[in-house]
Each structure stands twice: as C-alpha cells, then as structure tokens.
Amino acid sequence: MVCVQPVDAKKKKSKYDLKREHPSYLPLIEPDPITRKAAPDNHPKALQKPDLAGIGHGAVGNPLHGIDVSHYQGRINWQEVARDPQVGYVYMKMTEGSNMVDNTYEYNNREARRAGLKVGVYHFFRANTTAEAQFANFMSVFKKQNQDLIPIVDVELSNGVRDGVFVSRLEKLLELITKEIGKKPMIYTGKHYYKKYCAYNSKLRSYPYMIASYTFTPPTLERGDEYMMWQFTSQGTVRGIKGDVDRSKFMGRHTIHEIMF
Questions:
Q1: Residue 172 belongs to domain spanning
Q2: What is the CATH number of the domain that holds 232?
Q3: DSSP characters over the chain
Q4: pLDDT tens readout for residues 31-65
Q5: What's this model's pTM, rounded to 2 decimal places?
C-alpha cells in the first residue's frame, strides 16, 4: 500500500462529509514506507508468485490471493482483472488522515464490484491527526452497502509523534470504526511495527492482521503470533493493471469468509 502526501485540510461540511479536493493529476507518490522498514527482510528480487498452485477459496493448502490498489495504479481495467485467476479479492485505498480521499476510489469500487470481485477499502492512518478527525473523513465516504470485506487500517508511519500518542490514536480510530460497522477492521503493517506497537498491547493484538514482508518465506511475528494475511510483494503483475501492484494471500487455515461483511 502506498502513501501520498496529504492535502491541506478543508472546512467541514458536516460531521461525516468533509469538503475535499479531487485533483485531475496524480498526487506525488512517496516511497512505500513498509518497503524501507522491512528492508532487512527483503530479498533483492521481489517474490511474485508463491504457492500459486491450487488457488481457490482460501481453505488450508488452497490459498486465496488478492491485490490492493490506489491512484498509484491509474485507470484499471476491472473486467480484465476479474479474468485473472490469481485475483480473488481487492482492497482499494479510500481515505488518508483527516482530509484526503483517493481520487480513483469511486471508479475502482463501482467497476470492481461490477466485474464480480469481492472488494474492501483501506484507510491510511496518520498519527499526527486525531482519531476523531480521521474517522470523520473515513465515514464521509464509506458506505457499508458497497463493501464485501471488512475495512483495513493501514499503519506504516509514526509521523514523529510520541509512542503514547501514536498508540492511543490508533486504538481510538479502531474502536470508532468497530462500533460503527459492527466488526473489527483489519490492521495492515510490517512485522517491526507489529513488534513495537502491537505484540504487547492486548487491545491492538486482538485485531486481525495483514503483514507486509517481501520475502520468499512468510514472516514470523513477535511471540509467534498468528496473522490472517500476508502481503508478499509490492511488485506483482496482474492483467488489467499497468505496472506494479501489491499482492497478498490468506495464511494457513484462514479464509475470506472471516473478513466478509
């Protein structure tokens, strides 16, 4: 999942409907922070197709694969994506921080669902703004009826805040989303952030996880903790998408049914 530079905050129209910019150009892309943080675990050549035999419904020994996308991928041909046997689900960027909305989200959500794919959204967490402001931004766009999968909170940057502030804001945002949608969202992060902030925090440890680690073998978490999904590359290739795309799969006994609305 990639990070973009946030736009300046705008005046709120209502509690859940923030006024936002929709630029006609693609925002400046920052290097993927997870790539840097997981550098000691990276193989020089990103793994693209681990365990592709037996792609299916996510049962044991039959891992279901998927992708996550944002404005970084530009205009996507979702009918072609849906024909790719390696893609069973899609997570798409919806919001970031307190004021940014991905300007490809509406198109991606509509067209991916029209093509028959199971979809979910992710919110990029910014620790230097309040949980309440981020939740308002999230809810200004999120419509449960347009989702098949529980949302993800993408946790990659501390934004220079103290650890206590980082943790309290993340906990609060997750609590607000859980209360609103009736299910716990998933947390996306790297194993080093997991170790620092989550492994010994009973609240954060209770959420399902997607762990990013671009290696030939699945990462091992602190305490041997289990995780639901593994994002194994940021340089995957999928028909219908130009350029690189993040790819992930379910781990072990976990299936897509666990993250369905």
A1: 61-259
A2: 3.20.20.80
A3: ---BPPPPP--EEETTEE-----SSPPPBPP-HHHHHTGGG--SS----TT-TT-SSSBTTB--EEEEE-GGG-S--HHHHHH-TT-SEEEEEEEETTTEE-TTHHHHHHHHHHTT-EEEEEEE--TTS-HHHHHHHHHTT--GGG-SB--EEE----TT--HHHHHHHHHHHHHHHHHHHSSPPEEEEEHHHIIIIITT-HHHHTS-EEEE--SSS----GGG---SEEEEEEEE--TT--S-EEEEEE-TT--GGGGB-
A4: 344 444 333 344 333 344 343 333 334 444 446 89
A5: 0.81
